[in-house]
Amino acid sequence: xxxxxxxxxxxxxxxxxxxxxxxxxxxxxxxxxxxxxxxxxxxxxxxxxxxxxxxxxxxxxxxxxxxxxxxxxxxxxxxxxxxxxxxxxxxxxxxxxxxxxxx
Length: 103
Known about the structure:
Blueprint: H1 16-25, H2 34-65, H3 69-76, H4 79-102
Helix pairs in contact: 2-3, 2-4
């Protein structure tokens, strides 16, 4: 039995079982797992935190001391800054999720 195809090469017709199975196995393209979304949002907040620290290093001390990029990176990547960035990222994620659900 020859079934007609549409422009994309998919079979068209009255075979509901085939269509239903394709719909069930298709993934939602815009849906991320909650853990991935949390990691991405917290990571973005951490990135913004470190970017702000790096800009502050150059505006505060570059004119007087002529700091290099490597010296500034060593200066901002400390354990204390990482803890602050991680806590800020998690708090930011919780706030964004709360606002997303509320509105």
